[in-house]
Specification:
Number of helices: 6
Structural class: alpha+beta
Number of domains: 1
Shape: globular
Radius of gyration: 28 Å
Helix content: 10-25%
Oligomer: single chain
Order of helices and strands: EEEEHEEEEEEHHEEHEEHEEEEEH
Length: 388
């Protein structure tokens, strides 16, 4: 069943304004604090709820491509859930992939991972309640801090205002595809006991007159320490580029809020299709990288270091489910898809814009005569210098 938040003044749909951090009505201009918006109680059909439960069970089936990791030396452990339904939970049941817009009554079809969208007929922001209910409900949401206009300005800056970007890439119809999306993330808390033995060398040289003395000192290095990591973010959506999401990190968790659907109004949102246990491989890699960086920083004073024994023990992590804000724009150019992504909280940007071959050729033609002149001038100076 579709859920939206209505303006008390004109009954139009409210949206969350990231710039104002308020719920606003685009028709009458009324501005309301999210805390003052009344939650709607929705009862969804039992049949639809069964469909969602069935899909959740399929997501949790063991994946042959992901091997389980045991707690032990040098290997991060499998995750343990502390995920619980959010406090603000209406008594919802569920629907399937079709919903009825409660503003215009149109039947709208969505894919199975969409949790917040817009009605294709009247444009009203709509939240699909059953995909955010019960165990599917996120624990947290990080509200957007940057609005659409700021995201567009950042996009133009990102592609250097069209300096070497194809003209087609920055056309108005493409900019209109800029989408505010809440991406499903699993936030992992983990710990480890670092136990590393290594040998190190320090090489020092001193010079007296024409004599250089090199002194090499040898050390035995032992690193025993407790490591803690909180809220390591890994996206749980297969259609989202993992590398892009890592580049726009970190998020500042000071703005993290207990989940409320109000923040989703006016944005798109996805539901996870990768459960936390299926991210164990990516989590293990990241934890190993973190531990390796900490060790290397602790031995940076040595000229060389060789690890002889690593018995680091990783504890089983716990995790929470959260929705994180991302402005995203996908565009195809010459058969290749380019993606612009911006952290909706911090404004950090990721992506690689296309380069116009035409503009590069024009630039080369403009620079070529100048380069030829410089070469001739330098040649004249050298030959002139030799003849004088």
């Amino acid at each position: 069943m579709a859920v939206s938040f209505k303006c008390p003044g004109c009954a139009a749909s409210l949206v969350f304004d990231a710039d104002k951090q308020m719920m606003t009505c685009e028709y009458c201009g009324k501005v309301i604090s999210p805390a003052d918006v009344e939650a709607q109680m929705s009862i969804l059909s039992g049949e639809a709820m069964k469909e969602e439960d069935k899909r959740d069970a399929e997501l949790r089936e063991p994946d042959a491509s992901v091997s389980a990791t045991d707690t032990g030396a040098g290997s991060p452990a499998a995750a343990t859930s502390t995920h619980a339904p959010a406090a603000e939970q209406p008594l919802w049941s569920s629907e399937s992939m079709q919903y009825v817009c409660n503003s215009c009554g149109a039947a709208v079809i969505t894919d199975q991972n969409t949790a917040a969208t817009f009605c294709a007929f009247c444009g009203s922001p709509t939240i699909i309640a059953e995909r955010l209910a019960e165990e599917r409900a996120p624990d947290f949401v990080l509200p957007f801090q940057y609005g659409r206009d700021t995201a567009i300005d950042c996009f133009f800056e990102w592609c250097n205002a069209g300096r070497f970007t194809p003209v087609q890439f920055i056309r108005k119809e493409n900019i209109e595809k800029m989408t505010g999306l809440y991406v499903p993330f699993w936030l992992f808390d983990s710990a480890a006991e670092m136990r590393i033995e290594a040998s190190g060398k320090k090489v020092a040289t001193s010079t007296t007159g024409r004599k250089t003395i090199t002194t090499t000192s040898y050390f035995r290095i032992i690193r025993n320490r407790h490591l803690d990591w909180n809220k390591i973010p890994l996206d749980g959506a297969t259609r989202i580029d993992d590398k892009l999401m890592e580049v726009i990190e970190p998020y500042d968790y000071v703005d993290l809020e207990p989940f409320s659907m109000k923040y989703l109004a006016g944005f798109f949102a996805d539901k996870y299709d990768l459960t936390a246990d299926k991210l164990s491989g990516r989590l293990n890699d990241r934890l190993s990288d973190y531990a390796d960086k900490i060790f290397k920083e602790s031995v940076s004073a040595y000229s060389t270091v060789s690890i002889e024994n690593n018995e680091t023990v990783y504890r089983a992590p716990t995790f929470h489910y959260a929705l994180m804000p991302v402005w995203i724009l996908n565009y195809k150019y010459l058969g290749k898809t380019y993606t612009f992504a911006m952290n909706g909280q911090t404004g950090k940007i990721a992506g690689e814009p296309p380069v116009s071959l035409v503009k590069l050729v024009v630039l080369a033609l403009a620079v070529l005569p100048l380069a030829a002149f410089i070469c001739r001038f330098v040649g004249w100076l050298i030959l002139g210098g030799l003849l004088t």
